Amino acid sequence: MSVLVAVIAATSISNAATVTYSDSTAVIEGNTLTGANAITVSKFNPSLGTLTGVEITVTLSVPTFTIIVDNDASVVSNVTVGFGTFGSIDFSSTASTLSTSFVTMSGSNFSIATQTSTFNVQPQAGGDGLGTFENDGGVDVGSFTTTNVLVGSQNRQISSFVFDNYTGIGDITYDIAADLVTNLNINSGGGTGEVLYQGVIPAATFAASVTYTYTPIPEPSAALIGGLGFLCLLRRRR
User: Fold this and answer.
1) Average pLDDT over residues 209-233
2) What average pLDDT does this structure show over 164-181?
3) Considering its fold, how many domains does the chain have in total?
4) In this predicted model, what pLDDT tens digit does every residue of 98-130 receive, in sequence order?
5) Which residue range(s) make up the domain with 86?
6) Of 18, 54, 84, 162, which one has the greatest count of Cβ atoms within 10 A?
7) How far apart are CA 158 and CA 99, in angstroms?
8) Whether the Cβ atoms of residue 183 and residue 83 lie closer than 8 Å to each other
9) Is residue 2 helix, strand or coil?
């Protein structure tokens, strides 16, 4: 019985283990954040054992927010409200080869599709004057609520051919640069300046995580027990 236990202990030591590192940063509306929004995850420390797998997730998440429109004109205003990515996005990584197909992630992986809504807002009502934003819930106020946006390249399995990029002492750095802005296309019978809006995008989140799968290096005591068990087994067979 003791021999069997020793053999099982030695076998369990060789089972794969995992370690995960993650980091994130806030991306503020209207700011181009090149170089100011880097996130870093640790490389795999070879002293832990033999690396057998790398899986990485890099995402940009924009939470739900509401754009509110206040019509100060004396006539009904037809308003189109939109949100999305306008212009280009840059993405860079110090570990450039990120997938089994050796495809490098780029800014297009983080483009946010435009969300739009068109609606009528009734003429000015209440006590607010021209050029004064007022969210009083009256008939001259309308709103558009966006949906949560999660973009990026998720759960990419890294080819063993590029494990060297993820092994050693130090970090892997990722960087994204984007203008996250609200866009209004206002077609108002009341004229420019008579339809006001207010919409603040909560800080978006740029995040990365990497999970390393590896075969641990056996502890000296465990290796000794396994060796003794193997010798006992040989002796028993003899």
Assistant:
1) 68
2) 86
3) 1
4) 655 666 788 888 888 889 999 999 988 877 777
5) 16-214
6) 54
7) 5
8) yes
9) helix
